[in-house]
Write a structure and sequence with these properties.
The complex is a heterodimer of chains A (about 270) and B (about 200).
Chain A lengths: L13 H7 L1 H12 L1 H26 L2 H20 L11 H23 L7 H9 L14 E5 L4 H13 L4 E4 L3 E5 L6 H5 L11 E5 L3 E5 L2 H5 L7 H20 L3 H9 L8
Antiparallel strand pairs in A: 1-5, 2-3, 3-4, 4-5
Helix pairs in contact in A: 2-3, 3-4, 4-5, 6-10, 10-11
Chain B lengths: L2 H11 L4 H10 L3 E2 H8 L3 H13 L3 E8 L2 E8 L19 H5 L1 E4 L5 E5 L6 E8 L6 E6 L2 H8 L9 E2 H8 L6 H13 L3 E2 L5
Antiparallel strand pairs in B: 1-3, 2-3, 4-8, 4-9, 5-6, 6-7
Helix pairs in contact in B: 3-4, 6-7
The chains are: A alpha+beta (about 270), B alpha+beta (about 200).
Chain lengths: ~270, ~200
């Protein structure tokens, strides 16, 4: 397996920026309204962060999202009870320390394990690397038009099941209409905008569409195309992206979904990129 | 009759005073522009232009009359029935073997935006920008379903070009719909959105 990267190095810090932004908000709230308000503010933000991952879990079925949700809500609650004027006055008690330390140990181990096994990782970069792997030709030719890449024999149930698999393993986010299932691969850091609907229409993003007649078509967003180090020949790149998903579909259909995950893991892309 | 001539007829007949002038032409053996203008209370230039246009179309003839050294024309009606007859099939673009065998693909950096349908595999519209700077204008071309399917299957820039007939077949567009597809091809060639590479 070649480890020569065709994508530019990931310098996107959006993913880290959102949780980190809680710290200056805590600082500013404490500065202007006192430390008590600061704790309540960060507790509420942790709760909101947890709710976002609850939505992520509902949307994708990825259990790791549920762990993040519980983690956010747990530490949000701990911050609330830590706040001395909130009425619980538990600060410094043995019970608080016990709950806090066991929580840190439990969530610390679980989250590190989920990160190492890449179960929290959106696999957009893997998808783009796999699509670019066979493309040696340089030559641009970008167009915003979708490209039909072929016809595959499948039943609507099969493709729906595959879409759920892709969502569960964060390979792509599915959008379902009566005639199509569109899979949108998402890179780490882009999940907040995409899940919250802040990144615009999904039809403008990179997608692979499976229609109910078996036609598979592909669209690559200009932003994602520019993320490659070189101007790869666009027509074969689109075709290759379609083939990646068709192969994944066939592997999944044979009951070998784990091979799909193995192929992406073999690329050894960083946990947070 | 072609569209251009029919357009001239229609423009003349649509004038408010057209019926009144024709009434004079039918009832008078010959009449001059000044007589028409005086009779209908029109400006002489208006009457003159109208009569000259009818004469150019062959509806009237004119004869030069000399009066006190200053010549003028008297107009005589030549046709008592006006028929606007246009064969619409004259503008139908019959697909020739040549036009269907032209090999085309999208031009690189065409600078257009394609809008794809949400629920099916076809392009709904193409937005083209013409001109530059403050003169730039946006033109949105809405496509019919066969045109949209055709465009969806058009080869990408730098991809191997395909003939119009092959693309139609790939897109599942019936051969009888070739005229509207060819019309789109012509339009997009004009705006340099598609190209026929030499030897393609």
């Amino acid at each position: 397996m070649s480890l020569v990267r065709k994508l530019k190095p990931d310098r996107n810090i959006t993913g880290a920026l959102i949780p980190l932004s809680m710290l200056p908000i805590f600082g500013l709230a404490s500065l202007f309204f006192g430390i008590h308000t600061g704790f309540i503010t960060i507790a509420v933000l942790m709760g909101v962060y947890g709710l976002f991952f609850l939505y992520g879990f509902v949307r994708t079925g990825n259990v790791a999202q549920l762990v993040l949700c519980i983690d956010g809500i747990f530490f949000g609650y701990m911050l609330l009870v830590y706040e001395p004027t909130f009425g619980l006055s538990t600060m410094g008690t043995m019970e608080f320390k016990a709950a806090y330390i066991t929580g840190v140990i439990f969530f610390g181990i679980v989250l590190v394990s989920l990160a190492i096994t890449r179960r929290l990782k959106w696999r957009g970069r893997e998808i783009f690397e796999l699509a670019a792997e066979p493309i040696e030709e340089i030559g641009d030719g970008y167009t915003s038009r979708p490209r039909p890449v072929g016809k595959v024999e499948y039943s609507p149930q099969q493709v729906r099941s595959f879409a759920r698999f892709c969502a569960r393993h964060l390979i792509a986010l599915p959008y379902t209409t009566s005639k199509n299932i569109t899979l949108v691969p998402i890179k780490m850091g882009d999940e907040f905008g995409r899940l919250l609907g802040l990144s615009g229409d999904y039809r403008d993003a990179t997608w692979v569409n499976f229609d109910m007649d078996g036609e598979v078509s592909v669209h690559i967003a200009h932003k994602d195309y520019l993320d490659y180090r070189e101007s790869l020949a666009f027509d074969p790149l689109c075709s290759s992206l379609g083939q990646v998903f068709i192969e994944f579909f066939e592997l999944y259909n044979k009951g070998e979904g784990i091979r799909v995950i193995d192929r992406m893991d073999d690329l050894k892309i960083g946990f947070f990129s | 009759m072609n569209f251009h001539t029919a357009g001239k007829y229609a423009a003349l007949l649509s004038k408010d005073y057209a019926e009144d002038i024709f009434a004079l032409l039918v009832n008078y053996q010959a009449i001059s522009a000044s007589e028409v203008a005086a009779r209908l209370n029109l400006h002489i230039k208006t009457a003159q232009d109208f009569l000259e246009a009818l004469e150019a179309l062959g509806i009237l003839s004119r004869e030069e009359v000399l009066e006190r050294k200053r010549p003028y024309y008297r107009y005589i009606l030549q046709q008592t029935r006006l028929v606007i007859d246009i064969d619409l099939m004259q503008v139908k673009q019959e697909p020739s073997h040549n036009s269907l065998s032209v090999r085309i693909r999208e031009r690189e950096n065409a600078g257009v935006r394609f809008s794809a349908a949400r629920n099916d595999d076809y392009i709904t519209s193409v937005t083209i920008w013409t001109g530059a700077g403050r003169e730039q204008e946006e033109r949105k071309i809405k496509l019919t379903m066969p045109q949209g399917k055709f465009l969806y299957h058009l080869p990408f820039p730098k991809a191997q070009p395909m003939s119009v007939a092959e693309i139609m077949q790939k897109a599942g567009v019936d051969e009888s719909l070739a005229p509207e597809v060819l019309d789109l091809v012509q339009l997009l060639e004009k705006y340099e959105v598609i190209e026929s590479p030499p030897g393609g």
